[in-house]
Write a structure and sequence with these properties.
Chain lengths: 265, 265
């Protein structure tokens, strides 16, 4: 007769140990970092005071600054975000195809594409912008390329995952008719990933609007240039205007994207 | 048979016909593309000159120069400390803020202001928040930590609140029916349903904090970004390449570790 285990446990002891060691790792890492990081505590104490001082300098917001330079810079920022998202597709679609195991069945090609995708994601857009400003000089072109190279990893990874979730039945049916590779792509894979594709691209566009707003800090065009100039001149009321414009555009972009995405899916 | 034929006659219209709106949208998109490329002021010679600069830049980047590895290592250490402190405290705070923002657990007068706070945290790029913190708490790691805590709250608390809103309410009602207090409801009815997703968000956020901690230094908020930016300004491109390689390998290592962590939970 089997004995009944009256003491119920959700996890086995091995699982408990593994979980405990993860917690332990993070807590020791946290405590060690707190002890060794170089923070001047006096700076932390008067932070609220300094913050209030900054905010009081920003008030009242200088609305007259908007037509002078914020408007054009904001349009340029949106152009950078949109063009960057379009340019990124040129690189991201081939890499996504290379990364999907049901499209290309070669581990070597997977590793090559994964290397490019990870490099693109791990280098921040500001660093990409620094590199492209060094190449093409300050301006919108550097910003567009920075956004494009930064987004490749995101779109390539998510699109590759969407491709792997495709129902293979219709693909096999198409292959059985002797359809060439291009036809399998266009009529087999494409209709199935279409909603995911637009949803990923729109999501990335939303992120890119945020990112392109700061690229100007290193000279890559857009509202960041205006922001940087007013900050260097300590014109905090103009800074507040730029921040307000960025906030409004980012919120509007997010509302737009959420609405379109909810209709797509 | 005749009926079938007449039905086929009546349905000659292509079911995949493009609608008029679709065509208008494509024309608008093409017009926008032409306009925005023109606004970029792109000329062929500038682009070719840029490609020339790119090849000299890459020439000077290779071979990467690891001679100043001590500087690299101290920057890396500070970046790791920033990432660790900000992730642990940001994720911990998000646990509470996420519960407060969930509309199915909290009355509207709590959830609406909390959601507003999360929206403000989300809508500014970490770099802009970093600039404001550098102005208020001074240069150094503290500004970076505060920035990334805000960024973590903006991301995790939002997703966590959404995850809580999707839970099955049955368990909550069952626990409430026993007369349990609010904290017991959260611990025994809500947490088991959302904890695995929370771990997913947390590992993702640690990953993005790690990447951002190598970037906030560009505006003076501590970490490897400062080393990178000063190497850029001194045209030490071989050292820049060494830093970039370090960042990429750090992210690759974390991707490997995070799959391990996700397998444990």
């Amino acid at each position: 007769m089997a004995t009944i285990d009256y003491h119920w446990q959700r996890f086995s002891s091995g699982q408990k140990l593994a979980r405990f060691s993860v917690y332990l790792f993070f807590i020791t890492g946290f405590l060690y970092s707190i002890r060794s990081v170089e923070v001047i505590p006096e700076f932390l104490y008067d932070a609220p005071e300094q913050m209030m001082d900054l905010l009081s300098r920003m008030w009242p917001i200088d609305y007259s600054f908007y037509p002078l330079s914020v408007h054009d810079a904001m349009i340029e920022t949106l152009n950078i975000a949109t063009l960057g998202t379009l340019v990124t597709l040129i690189f991201a679609i081939p890499l996504a195809l290379m990364n999907a195991s049901n499209v290309v069945a070669s581990p070597v090609i997977h590793w090559i594409s994964r290397f490019f995708l990870v490099s693109s994601r791990s280098i921040n857009s500001l660093v990409w912008a620094l590199l492209f400003v060094a190449m093409f000089g300050p301006g919108m072109l550097a910003g567009v390329l920075a956004i494009a190279f930064r987004s490749v990893g995101f779109i390539g990874k998510l699109l590759g995952e969407a491709l792997e979730e495709v129902d293979m039945g219709s693909i096999e049916a198409l292959r059985a008719t002797g359809a060439p590779w291009g036809a399998v792509m266009l009529k087999g894979y494409w209709p199935q990933v279409l909603p995911a594709f637009f949803s990923i691209v729109l999501f990335r566009w939303d992120i890119n609007v945020r990112e392109s707003a700061v690229l100007g800090l290193v000279g890559a065009g857009g509202i960041g240039v205006v922001l940087n100039d007013s900050m260097n001149l300590f014109q905090w009321q103009e800074v507040a205007m730029s921040l307000l414009a960025i906030f409004t555009v980012v919120v509007l972009a997010e509302i737009l994207v959420v609405n379109i995405r909810s209709r797509l899916i | 048979m005749a009926g079938l034929n007449s039905m086929a006659e009546g349905n000659k219209q292509n079911p995949f016909n493009r609608s008029g709106w679709n065509i208008v949208l494509w024309i608008l998109a093409a017009a926008y593309l032409v306009y925005s490329v023109q606004s970029m002021g792109l000329s062929g010679e500038r682009f070719l000159a840029g490609l020339g600069h790119a090849s000299t830049l890459i020439d000077r980047m290779f071979p990467p120069n690891f001679e100043r590895w001590e500087l690299l290592l101290s920057g890396l250490g500070e970046s790791l400390e920033i990432a660790m402190i900000s992730s642990v405290s940001g994720i911990f705070l998000s646990l509470f803020i996420g519960v407060l923002a969930a509309r199915n657990l909290m009355p509207a007068w709590v959830s609406i202001p909390v959601r507003g706070f999360i929206a403000i945290c989300r809508s500014f790029h970490p770099v802009i928040i970093a600039i404001l913190f550098v102005k208020s708490v001074g240069f150094g790691a503290l500004a970076g930590i505060l920035t990334l805590i805000i960024a973590s709250i903006g991301f995790i608390a939002k997703l966590f609140a959404e995850a809580i809103e999707e839970i099955s309410i049955k368990q909550v009602e069952a626990i409430r029916a026993t007369g349990a207090s609010f904290s017991s409801v959260v611990i025994y009815a809500v947490m088991p349903q959302v904890f695995s997703r929370f771990i997913g968000f947390a590992t993702y956020q640690f990953d993005s904090n790690l990447r951002n901690s190598t970037m906030v230094g560009i505006v003076g908020a501590g970490g490897l970004g400062g080393t990178l930016f000063s190497a850029f300004q001194r045209f030490d491109y071989d050292f820049v390449a060494a830093i970039l390689i370090t960042i990429i390998s750090l992210i690759l290592l974390w991707e490997f570790l995070s799959t391990l962590v996700r397998r444990i939970f």
